[in-house]
Design a protein that fits this description.
This protein has 305 residues and is α/β, with parallel strands linked by helices. It has helices at 3-10, 25-34, 54-69, 93-112, 123-135, 140-143, 166-175, 192-202, 207-227, 237-241, 245-258, 268-279, and strands spanning 15-20, 40-48, 74-78, 117-118, 149-152, 155-158, 235-236, 286-289, 293-298, 301-304. The chain folds into two domains: 3-209, Rossmann fold (3-Layer(aba) Sandwich); 228-304, Uridine Diphospho-n-acetylenolpyruvylglucosamine Reductase, domain 3, CATH 3.30.465. The chain has a six-stranded mixed β-sheet, sandwiched between helices. Strands 7-10-9-8 form a four-stranded antiparallel β-sheet. The mean pLDDT is 93.
């Protein structure tokens, strides 16, 4: 086992964790690496997205058999058992399925009283994510890539394999004579991630530089977060106006989040709207922000109306 894999596993806190197993090589390797560690009790979770007909059902059957082989508890559900009860789902299919998966994980974690969920995203996934976000015009926060630990709506999500290459995980499975399922949709060129994956496979020399950009952006974002001043509940507009742009955006984000603007909608554009209210007196003095939050500027001061 490589030092990167061992270190990744050491960093997982002891406890009872949901382990997301799609049936693909990365998730199967993650489960095998966790199985047998006395301080970790895995609970296998799998959501059948019902997007590939019989192949989706076969993936679910493979995961059931794998959990049975290791005598692990498992929760396997279909998308149509989760989706109907969810309101305001995104129209974009990828975002929609991601929201449904998170809701599925959250339900299992709450019902089984688990510590959170462990996902099998690895270093190649991270490079693809960073390059995709670069092509879409993301700033430093987005270019930092996926975090190895994150809390999303109260759900703790761990990604312990972000420093491990896809090839390492497949070599590990080959040594164990463990098979896995291949998702044929990963070959479809209509998906942007698949096109980026094919590109990076033909340009392996770009992998480490892209990850280096991600690490630099993550450090920069941490510095911004630590350095940006905290705005008072009602503050003089000039305080925000005089901050450098990046620090001003971060202070604006924190202030808007404190005033109940949904974190998922706190984009650069939203933070800049508050900055412009502080900088430009010609902007509207009353503006509606995401979450139906009304913000007002009166006599040179910014406050929630």
């Amino acid at each position: 086992m490589t030092p990167d894999v061992l270190q990744s596993l050491i960093d997982i806190p002891p406890g009872r964790w949901a382990v997301a197993v799609s049936g693909g090589a990365d998730s199967v390797a993650l489960l095998l690496l966790l199985h047998g560690r006395p301080e970790i009790s895995p609970h296998v979770v799998h959501l059948d997205h019902q997007t590939r007909g019989q192949a989706s059902s076969d993936d679910a059957g493979f995961v059931v058999a794998l959990a049975d082989r290791f005598a692990l508890p498992a929760t396997i559900l279909r998308r149509d058992q989760i989706e109907p009860a969810m309101a305001h789902l995104p129209k974009n299919p990828s975002a929609r399925y991601r929201a449904i998966r998170l809701e599925f994980f959250r339900r299992v974690v709450e019902r089984e009283k688990l510590d959170g969920v462990i996902l099998a995203h690895q270093a190649d996934d991270q490079a693809e994510t960073i390059l995709l976000r670069l092509l879409r015009g993301s700033g430093p926060r987005g270019l930092a890539g996926m975090k190895d630990r994150r809390v999303i709506g109260g759900l703790t999500v761990l990604r312990p394999l972000l420093a491990v290459r896809r090839s390492e995980l497949r070599e590990f499975l080959a040594r164990r004579a463990q098979d896995w399922r291949e998702d044929e949709s990963n070959k479809f060129e209509k998906y942007a991630r698949n096109r980026v994956r094919r590109f990076l496979e033909t340009r392996p020399e770009l992998h480490e530089p892209i990850l280096a950009v991600g690490r630099a952006c993550a450090e920069y974002s941490r510095w911004i977060s630590r350095t940006a001043p905290q705005l008072k509940e009602e503050f003089p507009a000039i305080v925000l106006a005089e901050l450098p742009r990046m620090l001003g955006r971060e202070s604006a984000r924190h202030w808007l989040k404190f005033h109940d603007v949904p974190a998922a909608q706190l984009s650069i554009q939203v933070a800049d709207r508050l900055r412009m209210m502080s900088i430009d007196a010609a902007t509207p003095a009353r503006q509606l922000f995401p979450g139906q939050i009304m913000i007002c500027r009166r006599r040179g001061r910014i406050a929630r109306c």
